[in-house]
Amino acid sequence: MARYLFFADGEPTQLSTSYEPAALVHGSPIEDPEEGPFAGNTMTRFDSIGHRVVEVVEDVTARAPLPDEVTGLAIRPGVPVMTVQRTMWTTLRPVQATDIVIAADRYLLSYRIPVTWPT
């Protein structure tokens, strides 16, 4: 498990907790997500040990913040948060699941979705 707190313009904007299967990463060169030649790049890290990410799924919701999120994000109680549950998949299995909590008043979620037409 890895936990992160992200800032923009000096303000906390996002809490992130990531989980990776111990059976895949334990004892491997990518065991520590912040060490090694591919630190911080999940897709490249897993590709380097033969597990290519082919899909990322994100489920986004909004809700009231939990007490520790109010503190961590330095928001007033009742200011909504957006939650993103992100899962990175190979063709066979998930390789990382991440729970992201975003201060809704400090963030814009913008998605670009490519459209593929049959040829």
Overall description:
The chain is mostly beta strands. It has a single domain (2-106), classed as Chorismate lyase, CATH 3.40.1410.10. The protein is built from three helices and five strands. A five-stranded antiparallel β-sheet has the order 1-2-5-4-3. The radius of gyration is 16 Å and the shape is globular. The chain starts with a strand and ends in a 16-residue tail after the last strand.
Helix-strand layout with pairing:
Layout: E1 2-8, E2 11-19, H1 22-25, H2 42-47, E3 55-63, H3 67-73, E4 81-89, E5 94-103
Antiparallel strand pairs: 1-2, 2-5, 3-4, 4-5
Key traits:
globular; mainly beta; Chorismate lyase
Computed Rg: 16 Å
Quickly give the structural class.
mainly beta
Mean pLDDT across residues: 91
State the CATH class: Alpha Beta
Q: So, CATH architecture? A: 3-Layer(aba) Sandwich
**Overall shape:** globular
- Report the β-strand fraction as a percent range: 35-45%
CATH H-level homologous superfamily name: Chorismate lyase-like
The oligomeric status of these chains comes to: single chain
Q: How do the helices and strands follow one another from N- to C-terminus?
A: EEHHEHEE
Low-confidence stretches: none
Cross-sheet strand order for the largest sheet: 1-2-5-4-3
